[in-house]
Write a structure and sequence with these properties.
254 residues, alpha+beta, Rossmann fold, 2 domains, eight-stranded mixed sheet, six-stranded antiparallel barrel, 21% helix, elongated
């Protein structure tokens, strides 16, 4: 992975005054929330980096070496060097694996996504996002008071969107408002080959997991403490679940 070199940089231009005003709010929020600067992964031709630098933000921007397409350093290693900075991930529709790798290695608390939003799924990137969206729903939440800016992107079937995110407090339980019945909950305990189950958190879409351990929480036979792995990831959760009410809560685990 090479540091981006500035050159002939195409401009990001919102299509109308309303979008432009909202875009300025987002840029101001990024500037305010990034006193130490940003590190950008999948920088492309440097449009986002140029916009941020125009507002006095320190930017280190990286992408695959265009000469040989070889990663000199893994995205996770690069992102891991800048925990004090905001992580900016661009071109999510084209660089889902790179973005996910960078997010896995990042230890900071502020994230900006600049990329596509699927009209079908309502999630960042296309179907080839390599689990990025599941990772976001699990560990991140969109920053309060910062608008979502979106406009048509020439040459793309989905819009370019800018969103700002904050890492969830790992000690704050996330409420479960719906989930599997008792039979499905216990059937999922039969190992990785068993069908996973899906919990619906109060915020965001369903979280699909493989249940790894269940312990009786009281004598009712309806309330349980559990440990689980988020399907398709190396992320783990633990929590409480009532198979009678089909509600509960969970926390992220290290």
């Amino acid at each position: 992975m090479q540091e981006h070199e500035s050159g002939n940089v195409p401009q990001i231009t919102p299509p109308d005054s309303e979008s432009a005003a909202a875009f300025e709010v987002v840029l101001a929020a990024i500037a305010e929330g990034s006193p130490c600067g940003v590190v950008e992964i999948s920088a492309g031709r440097g449009s986002a980096a140029a916009l941020l630098r125009q507002r006095g933000i320190i930017v280190d921007a990286f992408d695959i070496d265009p000469r040989d397409r070889a990663l000199k350093h893994a995205p996770s290693d690069v992102a891991g060097l800048y925990p004090e900075r905001t992580l900016v991930l661009c071109r999510l529709d084209a660089a889902g694996a790179m973005a996910r790798d960078a997010l896995d290695g990042y230890r900071g608390d502020a994230l900006v996504l600049i990329g596509a939003v699927s009209e079908h799924t309502g999630t960042a990137g296309d179907d080839d996002n390599h689990g990025l969206v599941d990772h976001l729903r699990f560990a991140w939440e969109q920053a309060a008071g910062v608008p979502v800016v979106s406009w048509p992107a020439p040459g793309h079937s989905v819009d370019t969107t800018v969103t700002m995110w904050r890492r969830r407090d790992p000690h704050q339980p996330i409420p479960i408002v719906d989930g599997p019945d008792k039979d499905a909950f216990f059937a999922s305990l039969q190992g990785e080959s068993a069908d996973p189950v899906t919990f619906t958190p109060r915020w965001g879409k369903g979280l699909t997991v493989h249940v790894l351990q269940i312990e009786r929480e009281d004598g009712s036979g309806e309330c349980w403490n559990f440990q689980a792995r988020v399907a398709g990831t190396n992320q783990y959760i633990g929590g409480f679940y009532s198979t009678r009410r089909r509600t509960g809560s969970y926390r992220r685990r290290a």
